[in-house]
What we know:
heterodimer; A: alpha+beta; SH3 type barrels; six-stranded antiparallel β-sheet; globular; B: alpha/beta; Rossmann fold; 26 helices
Amino acid sequence: MNLICLSDLAIGQRGVIEEVETEEQFRWRLQALGFRIGREVRLIRQALFGGPLQVRIGSVNVMLRRHDAAFIHLRTTG
Amino acid sequence: MKRIALLGMPNTGKSTFFNRLTGAGARIGNWPGITVDLLSAKILLGAEMVEVVDLPGLYDLHGFAEDEQVVRRFLLNNSVDLLCVILNATQIDQQLPLALQLRRLGLRAVAIMNMTDEAEQLGIRFDAAALAAGLDCPVCFISAKYGRGFPEAREMLRHVLSLDPPTASPAPRADFAADEALIAEAEKLIARSVKMPRVLEYGLSERIDRFALHPVLGVPLFFLALFLLFQAVYTLGTPLQDGVAWLLEQFRESVLVHLQAILPGGLYGLLVEGVYDGLGTVASFVPVIVLFFLGMALVEDSGYLSRIAFLTDALMARVGLDGRGFVMLLMGFGCNVPALMGTRVIRARGLRLLTMLIIPFSLCSARLQVFLFLISALFSPTQAPLVLLVLYAASFLIAFATALLFKNRLGGGEPLLIELPPYRLPTFQQVVLRAWHEIHHFLSRATRFIVAGVVAIWLLTHLPAGVPAGGPETLAGMFGGWLEPVLRPIGIDQQMAVVLLFGFVAKEIVLGAMAVVYGVQGNALAQLTAQHMDWVQAFSFMLFTLVYVPCLSTVATLRGESKSLAFTSVSIAWSLVLAWLLSFIFYQSARLLGY
């Protein structure tokens, strides 16, 4: 199976979370906002100059930085 | 007295619920962690008075943010008779795990589903009975914003409080492994009790974000919005300000002058030339400040602040901060103290300290008053907006430069995760309540400091008895004389040196102090000021006022929040040195250039 990082999604592309490889504190924060294995996320947009990503998960929109998003691995669904 | 604790994630409308329930004017913010003080109020529930405490928003009972620790500490150290868990009905899938986690505490609880108006629009349906069974507590559906469902909610709170308390003792510390099970449980419960449309779309918010978060247009639009806000405040505020000044002047001329015949000279001077002139000069700026806070309340409650964090994060990362730091700077435009307390959402200590170091350079409303006065006294109406813009730009640049200089000692990153809530148009009542709270805070602070400040300054400029008022032989003249060698190179004379000395206590005093030092108020004060200093001196004075220690409250907050005397001392020393250096460079170069 082909896994890619959340930070490598193209704008508008979706993916299903397969693993979250980050320190525990951040993982709990992610979970609390809905980033759990099996949930679908979609990259909405990215700010200029390597700025943060806007990601939608369920009904929630969150921003996170590109290098933090690299720890979230997805199976792409188009 | 029985105690109810309100708990929930940020952006659930918890503060709005608290305000409606208690009728108190608490701060309402659409930004995670804005409710930093623990607000509480006593309400009558049935025949019994109970205390309601609004705890900070939290994402996870095991979280490591300061707010989350506050909640844990509160639950450990205070008896709570009822947990009132507020849930955002539109995001029920994200919120249920927290509700289940809180249920594990073994306390009596009720669940309040808020924002049901939005949930309805989005087509989310709930099976109330299944939800109540799954959560093992009563559930109630409300809209805090529009005040729907409150009688039912109150009755439910009363009823549950009247039941026997559970015998199990609360155990706030559970192991992390149990949380995985909670999430599975939450997902099953959602499947049983909630019907969601497959794709949830916030049509309008998404359309606004296409512009507001546009890669190229986003930032210019933000500055345009900021500019329009300020423009509106001054266009509406200036006539009001003139009106208040005129009224105060009339009262002085027609009523207070007659007191001169009745009161002994010294007392008349103290009361009229001291307290009345001092307070009056500050009072004329109240309309502008009121409008300013109304505007800030509108922006804060709309959900736009997190978008600003999104837009500015890349820039802030370069100076060792993140987008939240920029938002705190903006909040500091109102008052630095709540902005400093808002840094509690930042968990990494270095990052938090760096953010706290730059907030005092944010041009707060108290400094704004001083600048508005001096600018209108010394610059033409066409130059005035430009000068103010330069000061705001300076405020940002100094903050960024400070961050850049200190980022290797402090700073350090932490993973950033901020929710972008849907845009919400705050209700009229919400904005008014919020603005009232700010104004009340400003006025109580202003009057407390100003009355004491102007009295002290009047005494300093009139003692010892028998010497000419305001002259070099008075106590104020002596202080000014001591400070002169330091302040002369930046163009500040003895009289203004005394004013600066008092400005250390609070910037709200500065104008009152000038009124007392010069012995006049209103237009006469503006004219006299213009005779005493030229524009170069005035700008140097403003630059110094912008940069040096904002006020004692800020110092106290810095100390309290950082819990470090060393950090607080560095912050004060740095701002004093920087203020002097910048004013020196400006003043001497302007003079060299022949101005």
